[in-house]
């Protein structure tokens, strides 16, 4: 038996730093990742799909978002089991109980809206742990494991949340206890644990049967989320009493969120940065968080700004990484001698240079003014 394990679709997600039409394209890509599951299900022969929580970004969605999401699920073609998570819990305002959702829900979509066993077919069950609020007071997954028999039925746990060994805050009541999961696996009551919440693909523990699938489309930078954009194809051999499991990852995501650090100390370093950014493919589907360190003249800083302005227009977003950025700017001797100006204007430039070299409160503004002056003098964009 083979099925697809996915999670954290978070349909309706927005990212405030995306440029222009990048946000609509990003939203479309998130739905596109869902659509890709239909092709993948056919390619690998998947019997069904489980979505381990956070199908939607929140419960208050625009009607169009709900309708287009359900249409994408319809196209998957095999049963799709949705688990409410912390972003879209089964509370009083739940999207899953809204008139629009219930009226347009395709026949192949099943909401795991109660804790415990849901039969897929004879001999195969899902054990669901849906969220009813954003702050559960118990370990929802361990709760549904209690009393499960070891009776030869193949069972897949569908849960959402953080496993206790992965977080420092051990007192959080909603943490999923790894010991309880491994005990249920060891006695043969369950055979695979499909988790959501972590947006990066991850195996938990040593059994090879407990997995986070990650989000099928990237949601954060690669230093935070190293393995996004994937779906897991899970094989369980039902002919073997031990139900051996095989897990294969398949990439469906199209976007990249990258964190980059560069040292820029002269014009050559700026040129190298330009080359590296220029060679990156799929700029319209790439978000760069850029950290820069170094010491530059005003002229070189102006060249850097011109470079960054260009790529800010080409990438989906080029975001300053403030915590990793520290550039000192200092006018070099003779840097403004060839501007071809005299009189009052020359005296004003000399005053700006002196202010820029000082440690006073106005030094940063003076450096910015000098940089703008150079860019204007060279015919660059202001």
Task: Provide a quick synopsis of the model.
The protein is an alpha/beta fold and 382 residues long.
Structure report:
GO terms for molecular function: exonuclease activity. This protein starts with a strand and ends in a 5-residue tail after the last helix. The protein has helices at residues 22-44, 63-74, 99-104, 140-145, 178-186, 267-278, 298-314, 343-357, 363-377; strands spanning 2-6, 49-51, 80-82, 109-111, 116-121, 124-128, 154-160, 192-196, 202-203, 210-212, 230-236, 245-251, 256-263, 286-296, 317-320, 326-329. It is built from nine helices and 16 strands. The protein has a six-stranded mixed beta sheet, with helices on one face. Strands 5-6-7-8-10-9 form a six-stranded mixed beta sheet. Strands 13, 14, 15 and 16 form a four-stranded parallel beta sheet that branches. Helix content is 30%, strand content 22%. Helix 7 (298-314) packs across helix 9. It folds into two domains: 2-251, Purple Acid Phosphatase, chain A, domain 2 (4-Layer Sandwich), CATH 3.60.21.10; 256-380, no CATH class. The protein has 382 residues and is of the alpha/beta class.
CATH class designation of the largest domain: Alpha Beta
The CATH superfamily name of the largest domain is: Metallo-dependent phosphatases
Question: What is the averaged pLDDT score?
Answer: 91
Overall tally of structural domains: 2
- The number of E-state strands comes to 16
Tell me the number of helical segments per DSSP (H or I, 4 or more residues long): 9
How much helicity do the residues have? 25-40%
Within the CATH hierarchy, at the fold level, what is the topology of the largest domain? Answer: Purple Acid Phosphatase, chain A, domain 2
User: What is the end-to-end distance?
Assistant: 61 Å
GO molecular function, one term: exonuclease activity
Pfam families: Metallophos
InterPro entries: Calcineurin-like_PHP, DNA_Repair-Maintenance_Comp, Metallo-depent_PP-like, Mre11_N, UCP033093_metalloPase
Domain Calcineurin-like phosphoesterase: 1-199
């Amino acid at each position: 038996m083979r099925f697809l394990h996915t999670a954290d679709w978070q349909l309706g997600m927005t990212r405030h730093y995306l440029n222009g039409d990048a946000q609509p394209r990003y939203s479309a890509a998130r739905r596109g990742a869902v659509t890709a599951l239909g092709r993948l299900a056919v390619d690998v022969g998947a019997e069904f799909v489980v979505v381990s929580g956070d199908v939607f970004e929140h419960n208050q969605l625009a009607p169009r978002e709900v309708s287009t999401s359900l249409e994408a699920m319809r196209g998957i073609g095999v049963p799709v089991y949705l688990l409410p998570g912390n972003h879209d819990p089964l509370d009083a305002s739940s999207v899953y109980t809204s008139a629009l959702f219930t009226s347009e829900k395709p026949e192949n979509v099943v909401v795991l809206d109660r804790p415990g066993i849901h039969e897929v077919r004879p001999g195969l069950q899902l054990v669901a742990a849906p969220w009813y609020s954003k702050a559960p007071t118990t370990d929802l997954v361990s709760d549904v494991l209690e009393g499960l028999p070891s009776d030869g039925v193949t069972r897949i746990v569908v849960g959402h949340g953080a496993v206790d060994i992965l977080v420092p805050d051990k007192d959080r009541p909603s943490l999923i206890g790894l010991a309880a999961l491994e005990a249920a696996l060891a006695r043969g009551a369950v055979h695979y644990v499909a988790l959501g919440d972590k947006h990066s693909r991850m195996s938990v523990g040593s059994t090879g049967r407990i997995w986070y699938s990650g989000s099928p489309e990237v949601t954060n930078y690669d230093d935070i989320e190293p393995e996004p954009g994937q779906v897991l194809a899970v094989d369980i051999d039902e002919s073997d009493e031990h139900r051996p499991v095989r897990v294969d990852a398949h990439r469906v995501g199209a976007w990249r969120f990258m964190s980059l650090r560069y040292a820029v100390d002269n014009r050559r370093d700026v040129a190298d940065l330009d080359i590296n950014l220029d060679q990156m493919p799929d700029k319209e589907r790439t978000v760069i968080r850029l950290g820069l360190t170094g010491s530059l003249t005003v002229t070189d800083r102006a060249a850097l700004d011109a470079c960054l302005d260009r790529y800010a227009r080409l990438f989906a977003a080029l975001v300053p990484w403030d915590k990793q950025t520290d550039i000192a700017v200092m006018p070099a001797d003779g840097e403004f001698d060839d501007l071809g100006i005299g009189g009052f204007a020359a005296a004003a430039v000399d005053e700006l240079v002196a202010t820029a070299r000082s440690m006073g409160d106005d030094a940063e503004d003076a450096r910015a003014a000098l940089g703008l002056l150079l860019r204007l003098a060279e015919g660059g964009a202001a």
